[in-house]
UniProtKB/TrEMBL annotation:
Residues 321-344 are annotated as: Disordered. Belongs to the shaker potassium channel beta subunit family. The keyword NADP applies. It comes from Agromyces luteolus. The lineage of its organism: Bacteria, Bacillati, Actinomycetota, Actinomycetes, Micrococcales. It comes from the Bacteria. InterPro entries: K_chnl_volt-dep_bsu_KCNAB-rel (IPR005399), NAD(P)_OxRdtase_dom_sf (IPR036812), NADP_OxRdtase_dom (IPR023210). Keywords: NADP, Oxidoreductase. Residues 15-314 form the NADP-dependent oxidoreductase domain. This is Aldo/keto reductase. One of its GO terms (molecular function) is oxidoreductase activity. SUPFAM superfamilies: NAD(P)-linked oxidoreductase. Pfam families: Aldo_ket_red (PF00248).
Length: 344
C-alpha cells in the first residue's frame, strides 16, 4: 500500500482510504462492517474516513468498535461535521461554533479516540460567517482534538477564503474532499488548480461512480439484486444520475482497457483518479471484505498514456466536466434572510 502526503503537510495517508459512507450502520450488518475494516488493515490501509451524519452517528460508532485494539498512532482517522445529526434541532447542523464544538466531542466519543487526524467541514455553510468556523477549527487544533483541518466540496473561491484565514490563524488547512471519477471531473478546471496553489490535496469520494464504473450495471432496467441501484436507503438516489443506457453502454467499453492492463474495472477506475497528482487518496467503501482486497490492489498502478487516452475515447461525451456543479453541492437551505451571512 502506497502513501501520499496530504497537502503541503508532513502527514501521510494511504492512497487507498477506507470510507464508511452508505455502508456502516445502514446498508451493512455490523459483523460484515468489522470484517471489511479488518480486511482494510490486512492489506495495509491505515487511513479511515467517516462523518458524524453517516447513519446519523452510527457509522462512527461502528468504525470505532472495529478499530478497537489497533495502535492509535498507526492510524489516520478522518471525520466530518456539517449535516444534521440527532433529532435535527436548530443547532444540530451547520458550521457554527456551537455545533462544531459539540460535534467533535461526540465524534471522539463514538470513535473511541482522544483526537482525529483530520477534521473536515462537510460542506460550505452560507449561514455562518467563515471567520466563526475557522476560529472554532483553530481552537480544536490548539486543544489537540484535531491535528489538521480539511473541507468537502468547496469551490475554488471558497478554498481561497478558507486558506487565507487558516494562514492568519496559523492552522494546517490541508485537504478538500470532492466527488471525482472518470465520469465526474468537475474539479479539474478550477478546484484542482486552486488547491495546488494553496497546498491542498484532494481526498476523492466515489472514484467508481457509486459502482457504475465496475461495469456491473449493463442496463438501467436490470440492476443486480442487492446492488446500490436497488437500495432504498439512499444508494439508489445517489446512483440515479448514471443509470442511463448511454452512460452504461460507454462504461462497458472500459472492459477492454482493463483487460489489456490485467485489472478489474473497479481497479482501473480507482487507479485513474490516482493518476492526478493533486489526489492524495481515493475513498473506497465495501459491503464485503473481498471488495476491499480487490480495490486496494489499485495502489501503485501507473496507467500508460495510451490507456488514459482509451478511457477518454470510451467515455466520450457522457463525462461531466462543468465546474459550476461544485457550487451546487452545498445546501442553500441555510442561506440567511436577515442580511447577514453569505449568499450562494
Amino acid at each position: 500500500m502506497k502513501y501520499r502526503y496530504l497537502g503541503n503537510s508532513g502527514l501521510r495517508v494511504t492512497e487507498i482510504t477506507y470510507g464508511n459512507w452508505l455502508t456502516h450502520g445502514s446498508q451493512v450488518e455490523n459483523d460484515s462492517a468489522r470484517a471489511c475494516v479488518r480486511a482494510a488493515l490486512d492489506v495495509g490501509i491505515t487511513t479511515f474516513d467517516t462523518a458524524d451524519m453517516y447513519a446519523n452517528t452510527a457509522a462512527e460508532t461502528v468504525l470505532g468498535e472495529a478499530l478497537k485494539g489497533v495502535r492509535r498512532e498507526s492510524l489516520e482517522i478522518l471525520t466530518k461535521t456539517y449535516f444534521p445529526v440527532g433529532p435535527g434541532g436548530a443547532n444540530d447542523s451547520g458550521l457554527s461554533r456551537k455545533h462544531i464544538m459539540e460535534s467533535i466531542d461526540g465524534s471522539l466519543r463514538r470513535l473511541g479516540t482522544d483526537y482525529v487526524d483530520l477534521y473536515q467541514a462537510h460542506r460550505w455553510d452560507y449561514a455562518t460567517p467563515l471567520e466563526e468556523t475557522m476560529v472554532a477549527f483553530a481552537d480544536l487544533v490548539r486543544s489537540g482534538k484535531a491535528l489538521y483541518i480539511g473541507v468537502s466540496e468547496w469551490t475554488a473561491d471558497q478554498l481561497r477564503q478558507g486558506a487565507a484565514l487558516a494562514r492568519e490563524l496559523r492552522i494546517p488547512f490541508v485537504s478538500n474532499q470532492p466527488q471525482y471519477s472518470a465520469l465526474w471531473r468537475v474539479i479539474e478546471a478550477d478546484v484542482v488548480p486552486a488547491s495546488r496553489e494553496l497546498g491542498i490535496s484532494q481526498i476523492v469520494w466515489s472514484p467508481v461512480a457509486q459502482g457504475v464504473l465496475t461495469g456491473k450495471y449493463r442496463s438501467r432496467h436490470a440492476a443486480p439484486t442487492g446492488s446500490r441501484a436497488t437500495d432504498g436507503n439512499g444508494g439508489a438516489e445517489m446512483i440515479e444520475r448514471w443509470m442511463r443506457d448511454d452512460v452504461l453502454d460507454r462504461v462497458q467499453r472500459l472492459g477492454r482497457v482493463a483487460d489489456e492492463l490485467d485489472l478489474t474495472m473497479a481497479q482501473l477506475a480507482i487507479a485513474w483518479v490516482l493518476q492526478n497528482q493533486n489526489v492524495a487518496a481515493a475513498l473506497i467503501g465495501a459491503s464485503r471484505p473481498e471488495q476491499v482486497v480487490e480495490n486496494a490492489a489499485a495502489s501503485g498502478v501507473v496507467l500508460p498514456p495510451d490507456a488514459l487516452a482509451a478511457i477518454d475515447d470510451a467515455l466520450g461525451d457522457v463525462v461531466e466536466r462543468d465546474p459550476a456543479k461544485t457550487s451546487l453541492e452545498s445546501p442553500v437551505d441555510r442561506v440567511r434572510t436577515d442580511g447577514w451571512g453569505t449568499t450562494p
